[in-house]
From TrEMBL:
<dbReference type="InterPro" id="IPR011990">
    <property type="entry name" value="TPR-like_helical_dom_sf"/>
</dbReference>
<protein>
    <recommendedName>
        <fullName>Clr5 domain-containing protein</fullName>
    </recommendedName>
</protein>
<feature type="compositionally biased region" description="Low complexity">
    <location>
        <begin position="172"/>
        <end position="190"/>
    </location>
</feature>
<dbReference type="Pfam" id="PF14420">
    <property type="entry name" value="Clr5"/>
</dbReference>
<feature type="domain" description="Clr5">
    <location>
        <begin position="48"/>
        <end position="100"/>
    </location>
</feature>
<feature type="compositionally biased region" description="Polar residues">
    <location>
        <begin position="152"/>
        <end position="164"/>
    </location>
</feature>
<feature type="region of interest" description="Disordered">
    <location>
        <begin position="150"/>
        <end position="195"/>
    </location>
</feature>
<dbReference type="InterPro" id="IPR025676">
    <property type="entry name" value="Clr5_dom"/>
</dbReference>
Length: 551
C-alpha cells in the first residue's frame, strides 16, 4: 500500500512504519509498509468544530452524490485531511438525522409525485429524496399504473439511484435528463398536477435537492414563478434555519455586530447594507459604497442558511427597478448571489433556479411583483399576522410597488397595513405610516407627507418606550425640515434637523437618512441663516464623534 505522507489539516501527523522511497513522476515522498494482521491504527476523534466544518461536504458526497460511506471516508481523509472511523461517521449520521432508506408512507408519496410529473409532460431529472436520487425500483409497487412504471424502469433514471451505482471517486455523479412520454394522455394542467402533489410537500423529511423542470412550452416567467412556489413550499416544510449562535461559529466575521447582539435581524442588515451601498455609489462616495456591497456579499451564504426567502425578497426590492448607470454592477451582484445559491443549495434546488432566472433584467422586469406577492402570501399562511417577518415583508411589498410606480395597489396595501398595525406594538404603527409617507413623497404630495410626518412625531412623543422605530422618527424629522425650509422657516428646519441627527447617530443601521447626509443639510440650513458653521464644529457642539462621521 502506498500512502503519500502529508500533514493533516487538524495538526496531526500520520504515523507510519516502513521504508521510504521517492516516486519517479513527482517530488512526493512515499512510504511503503505492510499492515500487521488485525492491526488497526487508532484514529483520534475530531472535535465538534471540525465536524461542523465538514458536515456540508459530507452531505454533498454521501447524499447528493450518493457515495458509499467507505468511499466518502476515503475522500475526506485524502482530500481534506479529515480522519474518522466508520463508527464515528455512523454516530454523526444518526445525530444529523441523515438517512437513505424510505418509509412506507414516503414511498407512496414519491410514487404519486413521479407519476404526476410524467402525466403532466414534465421531465424527470434526478428526482431525489433527502438529496439522493430516487430509487424508482423501490417505489414501483406503490403506483397503480404498471405500464407507466415499466417504461420508467427502462430509462437510465431507474438505476441511477440504486446502491449498485458505481461512481468515480474524484468526480461528482451526473445524470442525463431523459424526456419521458406519458403512458396515457392527460388533459390536466401543470397547476392541477401540482395540487395532486401537494401532499408530498407535507413531509418534513423530504428535501428539495430536486432538478424539477417545468413543461417546456411554458414561458420563462411562468418557470420562474414555478420555482418560486417550490422554494416557498420547501422553506415551510423541509428547511431548518440556523440560529445566530451557530451562524457566528460557522461564518466568523460575516455576521454584523448588530445581528450578533440581537439589535437587528440578519435579513434587515443585508437589506440596509445593499440599500445604503447603492445610495452611496449614486452620490459618488464609491469607497464607502463598495465597502457596503462587499459586506453584503459576505452575508449571502449565512442568509441562505438562515432566511433564504428573506434574501430573495431583499433582492426583489432592491433590484425592483434598474440601477441607474450601474447595469454592469447590478448584473454582477445578482450573478454572485445566484452562484452562491447553487453552491450552498445545489444547482437543482428551486431557489437556486429562481435566483438564476432573475439575473436577466428582461425576466426580472416581469416577475418581481408576483414573486414578492407569493412570498408575502406564503408567510401570511404560515405565520401569524402580527409576526415580525410578515409585517416586514408587507412593508417591503409596498416599497417595491412604490418604486415601480404602482401607486393605486400600493395605497390599498398600505391602508390595510396601517389598520392592522393599530393592534400591534406602537412602533409598528409608525413604521406603517412611514411607508405611506414614502409613497406620498414619490407622488410629490408634499402636503400629505408633512401631515404624515407630524402624526409620526406625535405618536412617538406619546410612546412611553420612546423607541425610534429603526429610523422612522428620523425620516419624519427630515421631511418636516424640508417642508420648513421650503417655507423659509429655517429656525424650525434647524430644530428638526438637530433632532434627526441625534436620533440617527444613537440608532444602529436603519432605512432612514444617514447621519452624514443630515449633517450636510444642517450645515446648509445654518448658512441660510447667515451662520457659517462647518460640520466638524456642529459635531463638537452636539457631542458627536467627528472623525467617524466626516472622515
Amino acid at each position: 500500500m502506498e500512502i503519500v505522507a502529508q500533514q493533516l489539516a487538524f495538526g496531526q501527523d500520520i504515523p507510519f512504519s516502513g521504508t521510504t522511497s521517492w516516486t519517479s513522476d513527482s517530488d512526493e515522498m512515499v512510504y511503503q509498509f505492510k499492515e500487521r494482521p488485525g492491526h488497526h491504527p487508532k484514529v483520534n476523534a475530531p472535535n465538534p468544530d471540525q465536524w461542523r466544518g465538514i458536515k456540508d461536504i459530507f452531505t454533498q458526497l454521501y447524499l447528493t452524490e450518493n457515495r458509499k460511506l467507505k468511499d466518502v471516508k476515503s475522500i475526506l481523509s485524502r482530500k481534506h485531511g479529515f480522519n474518522a472511523s466508520e463508527k464515528m461517521y455512523k454516530r454523526r449520521i444518526t445525530e444529523w438525522k441523515i438517512r437513505k432508506n424510505y418509509k412506507a408512507q414516503e414511498k407512496e408519496v414519491l410514487a404519486k409525485r413521479v407519476q404526476a410529473y410524467v402525466n403532466s409532460g414534465r421531465d424527470i431529472q434526478s428526482l431525489s429524496f433527502n438529496g439522493r436520487p430516487v430509487k424508482l425500483d423501490r417505489v414501483k409497487r406503490h403506483c397503480p399504473d404498471k405500464q407507466l412504471w415499466d417504461q420508467l424502469m427502462q430509462s437510465p433514471e431507474a438505476t441511477s439511484g440504486t446502491d449498485a451505482t458505481t461512481v468515480k471517486e474524484d468526480t461528482p455523479s451526473t445524470t442525463t435528463p431523459t424526456k419521458l412520454t406519458p403512458a396515457t394522455k392527460s388533459s390536466s394542467s401543470p397547476m392541477h398536477s401540482d395540487l395532486q402533489m401537494a401532499e408530498a410537500t407535507t413531509l418534513n423529511s423530504v428535501s428539495f435537492d430536486i432538478n424539477i423542470s417545468p413543461p417546456t412550452e411554458l414561458h420563462t416567467v411562468e418557470s420562474t414563478l414555478f420555482h418560486t412556489r417550490e422554494s416557498i413550499r420547501w422553506q415551510f416544510t423541509s428547511f431548518k434555519p440556523l440560529k445566530v449562535e451557530e451562524l457566528r461559529i460557522r461564518f466568523p466575521g460575516d455576521i454584523p455586530d448588530e445581528v450578533s447582539t440581537g439589535r437587528l435581524d440578519q435579513a434587515s442588515a443585508f437589506w440596509l447594507l445593499l440599500h445604503h451601498g447603492f445610495s452611496l455609489l449614486h452620490s459618488r462616495r464609491s469607497s464607502e459604497g463598495f465597502k457596503n456591497l462587499d459586506d453584503c456579499c459576505k452575508m449571502i451564504q449565512p442568509l441562505l442558511k438562515s432566511a433564504p426567502l428573506h434574501l430573495l425578497s431583499c433582492l426583489l426590492l432592491n433590484f425592483a427597478i434598474a440601477w441607474k448607470d450601474m447595469n454592469d454592477l447590478e448584473q454582477k451582484l445578482l450573478e454572485f448571489v445566484s452562484e452562491m445559491a447553487c453552491k450552498v443549495l445545489g444547482p437543482y434546488h428551486p431557489l437556486s433556479k429562481a435566483t438564476k432566472m432573475i439575473v436577466s433584467d428582461s425576466t426580472r422586469e416581469h416577475v418581481v411583483e408576483p414573486m414578492m406577492n407569493m412570498i408575502v402570501q406564503g408567510y401570511r399562511s404560515a405565520r401569524k399576522l402580527s409576526s415580525s417577518s410578515v409585517f416586514a415583508l408587507r412593508v417591503d411589498q409596498i416599497d417595491l410597488l412604490r418604486k415601480r410606480k404602482r401607486f393605486d395597489q400600493a395605497v390599498n396595501l398600505c391602508q390595510q397595513l396601517i389598520d392592522d398595525s393599530k393592534s400591534m406594538r406602537p412602533k409598528r404603527y409608525r413604521t406603517a405610516l412611514a411607508a405611506f409617507g414614502r409613497l406620498r413623497l414619490e407622488q410629490n404630495d408634499e402636503f400629505a407627507v408633512e401631515g404624515i410626518a407630524h402624526r409620526i412625531l406625535e405618536h412617538a412623543n406619546s410612546d412611553p418606550v420612546m423607541s425610534n422605530s429603526g429610523g422612522t422618527t428620523t425620516w419624519a424629522c427630515e421631511q418636516l425640515a424640508v417642508s420648513a425650509t421650503n417655507r423659509g422657516d429655517y429656525n424650525s428646519a434647524e430644530m428638526y434637523l438637530r433632532r434627526a441627527v441625534g436620533l440617527s447617530h444613537q440608532e444602529y443601521l436603519h432605512r432612514g437618512p444617514s447621519t452624514e447626509l443630515l449633517l450636510e443639510k444642517l450645515e446648509v440650513c445654518l448658512r441660510q441663516q447667515g451662520r457659517k458653521v462647518k460640520i466638524d464644529k456642529i459635531c463638537t457642539e452636539m457631542g458627536l464623534p467627528v472623525g467617524r462621521l466626516i472622515g
